[in-house]
Amino acid sequence: MTLVIVGTGTDVGKTVVAATLLARYGREIPLAYWKPVATGARDGRDTATVEALAGDRAAILTESYLFDEPVSPHLAARLAGQRIEPAALLADFDRHRAGARTLVIETAGGLLVPLAEAEGEAEEIGAAAANAPRSASSGESRGWPFRQPPEAPSPSPSSAPSPSSSSSSSSSSSSPSLPAWHSGAAAAAAAAAAEPAGAGYLQADLIVDMARRAPLSCLVVARTTLGTINHTLLTLEALRARGLGVAGVVLDGPPNRENRRAIERFGGVETILELPHVAPLDREEVAAATRHFDRGGLLAPLLRLRRQVPLPGDRPGQAGSRGSRGSGRDGGGDRSGGGQGSDRGRRRGPLA
Asked: Do 22 and 50 form a contact (C-beta atoms < 8 A)?
């Protein structure tokens, strides 16, 4: 089983939760931490933070893509003159999960963060931005090519149904008649939903593709402060709409009983863990936090779950060892300073 740590947004505490989880379970369960895509490396690497806080409890794998700018991955890649390739991420995923360790993945930001733009879209946006006229008053770029949904036709007296026509339609059909503008909006929405996946690649798409290759479950990290109910419920809804499993929710910050109860009730979440603010953020404080994190061991069964299932005649525990024989590796990857991980998008020098 792979556990994916997903945030309701950026800076909600995913990295601290990842380090605490590794420190909590790393002694009893072989774990490996991997952040496939990371941005903002000029201000520090989450991988380095996790290694400093809990590197003695798990294997720390190198990022597949690492960018300097603290922006969305698709933009960070564009600014670096590169493109994030989903196939490369999935190849690294297959390699990392081939080892004997349970893979713990930390995402970059929220679930719907874009990882890659459509082919050629970055060039079009860059050219349009360069040629966009400037406002004399504010200096802001105008004409930025934001993608707008198809406009539905405006309602008009001729297109709006009259009361008599509505009543006659309802009497002749079991479904209510809709105004023409409503039908146009529905058609536009259907067309947008049918847009090919090649138009862009979200972080949610990556998780879905991973789930097609191996069992995984998502642990949602959210703040405890104002706004978290909406953000958390939206994230849970987006996960379930994609058929992705939810391991539970971690509320990071000062305890808030009402927010927790609302998420539990309206989100239909049985496992809700709490992690009070860790300060100072160091190894000792993270170790202390493990005494209060997941006291009931609710995540342990997921972390212990292996891909293999026992075959007839297997001795107890034999199935869990299949697939790692002769591999010569304990986690399918390296420590963050090692050389087995790919270096796509990485900067050499101080960041490496």
From this structure: yes
User: What are the pLDDT digits (tens) for 189-209?
Assistant: 344 444 444 579 999 999 999
Check: CB of residue 245 under 8 Å from CB of residue 218: yes
Q: Where are the domains of the chain?
A: 2-117+198-307
Helices 203-213 and 86-97 cross at an angle (nearest 10°) of 40
Helix (H) or strand (E) holding 115: strand 114-117
Residue 49's Cβ-count burial label (10 Å; 0-12, 13-18, 19+) is middle
Spatial contact of 248 and 236, defined as CB atoms under 8 Å apart: no
Say if pTM beats, i.e. exceeds, 0.90: no
**How many whole angstroms separate alpha carbon 176 and alpha carbon 174?**
7
- Domain 2-117+198-307 class? alpha beta
Alpha helices (runs of H) in the chain, residue ranges in sequence order: 14-25, 46-54, 73-79, 86-97, 121-131, 163-172, 180-193, 203-213, 228-241, 257-267, 283-289, 300-304, 318-321
14 is catalytic: no
Indicate which residue of 14, 35, 57, 223 is catalytic: 35
Dist CA 278 CA 253 (whole Å): 8
